[in-house]
Amino acid sequence: MRFGTAEAAPGELATGVIELGHDNILPLVSPVMLARGALPGPRLFIQCLIHGGENVGPIAAARFIRSLDLKTFKGSIAALLVANPLGQRAHSRLTPQDGTNLNRIFPGSPSGSVGEQMVDRLLAIAGEHGGDAILDLHSGGELTITAFYVIYDDKFDGPQQRASKALAAQIGSRYQWGASEGWMDGTYLAHVSRTHGKTALIIESGGGARVREEDLANFSTALNGAARALGMIAGDPPVASDIRRGGNAVHVKCTKGGFWDCLVEPGQDMVAGQVMGRMVDLYGQVVEEIHCPTGQAWVGSIRRPWMPLYSGDQVVEVVERL
Questions:
Q1: N or C terminus of the chain: which is more exposed, having fewer CB within 10 Å?
Q2: What pTM does this model have?
């Protein structure tokens, strides 16, 4: 079995690279891992770092894969560890060369900008190697801190969407978000599900320019849960309690610049009008209070506390509670 330059026989772990595009000197490549169990079984595909700086995902994926007992493991896992090498080098969720957010421009174009060409390539790789399920790992990046949540495509009621929703309930997160908004149409998640017919999830935890053991543990729970749900390893998948369903999200922005004094935590329940934070100027004066704009909700993500922000910057993402 091959994935890029990695080749694994039954019971083996292999590493290598796969080509995603070209810069002005050499091909753009991503490190890859390929774990093949001694026993036949499903194929799981993991993608990391479509947004540069979201470093929890690849660290957690590599730890998880190296923890597997391949003598008893059923099936295979292919991990694409750096889906956006240009963004990762710049610690940026965007691709600096063309300013694109790769996770908003799918399906891309083989003759477009460098970001559009990488997206076209990522979608082709998912079609070839995606197997039975795809997990797209995120972690807030340099500026944002997220709850431990899972997103599945909820715009259509097809077999892939139903299978994705079922898998979302088996990774151990209480925040289960069925997204149907317009921004989803340009995402990797939507296209691997709708174009390639894959069971697919976004899994997110952490961020804020840090890697915490708590977030690594969340990803470990999620990855083990997915493998158990697929029958790749023994045991029952984790089932969270006190579930928070998610619908559409509201991206709340400040109207005054200053320092962001955040008063809420990722995952916190909110009600309309509740104060979520304050903008504080250099004189120490509160120049704006930020309130929850929607009825029953939970906090999907926050901007890193005490960051200096411009007017119009996003400060909180609140997710409609269903």
A1: C
A2: 0.97
